[in-house]
Amino acid sequence: MSEMKNIVVLDYGLGNVRSVSNALSAVGANPQVSRNETNILQADGLLIPGVGAFPHAMERLVEAGLGEQIRRFIDSGRPVLGICLGMQLLFEQGTEFALTKGLGVIAGTVDRIPIRPDEGRLPHIAWSRVRATKHGSDKLFAGLCEDELRFYFVHSYAAIGVPVEHVMGTAEYLGQEIVAVVQCGNVWGTQFHPEKSGPSGLRLLKNFISYC
Predict the structure, then answer these.
(1) Which position among 155, 166, 193, 212 bears the catalytic label?
(2) I need a labelling partner for 204 at 20 to 30 A (CA). Which of 49, 112, 183, 192 fits?
(3) Residues 96, 155, 166, 195: which is the catalytic one?
(4) Is residue 159's pLDDT more than 90?
(5) Whole-angstrom Cα distance, residue 94 to residue 68?
């Protein structure tokens, strides 16, 4: 039997940490919700959840000194996964309410999805199909067929200007292409919520754990 992986779910006050922890437990990991530096640096993997506004989240991270801890963890080479807002924080900047500097791990800007009122409504709340790119088909999507790549999205902002080599999957909403999955080295991000995406989401989390 393989060793159970210790995964820290970062606690900065803006995330559905319970459902994320339950999903990690369901795929055989040992999740721990924490912001403690020792716990983080001793973990096999780090998960950054997030629900809310980009500037508020960055303010929370800076106040708690967690931005530096995230960077140190990334530099250690161990896997990191950002979910929804947690993924968005990995980019260089966000435009929600005010231009706000992000963690700068992946090139790109988080901007409002350009949907006009006559075209439809935001947020994008839907089970949407994700199309794996040539860079991502054998990674987080391993073991999932094309028909199983449907995940739960809820967001009004999305990453733009992301280098193509970091885009692992895309989705579409009202004619707009959405960056759905990214990877840069040992750092992954999903714009959707795998913990709310049924068996496919659990399989994706299990794939992430396999890298830890």
Answers:
(1) 193
(2) 112
(3) 195
(4) yes
(5) 19
Tracing tokens 């508020």 back to the chain, one arrives at 56
Q: Where are the domains of the chain?
A: 6-210
Residue 13 pLDDT exceeds 90 = no
Q: Which two tokens stand for residue 166?
A: 């970091």
Beta bridge partners of 176: 173
Q: Give dist(CA 43, CA 41) in Å, integer.
A: 6
- What does pTM read for this prediction? 0.96
Q: Tell whether the model's pLDDT for residue 65 goes beyond 80.
A: yes
Between CA 157 and CA 93 the distance in angstroms is 12
Query: For this structure, is 84 an active site residue?
Result: yes
In the predicted structure, residue 137 carries a pLDDT above the cut 80? no
Q: Which is the catalytic residue, given 84, 96, 124, 184?
A: 84
Establish whether 212 is a catalytic residue: no
CATH no., domain 6-210:
3.40.50.880
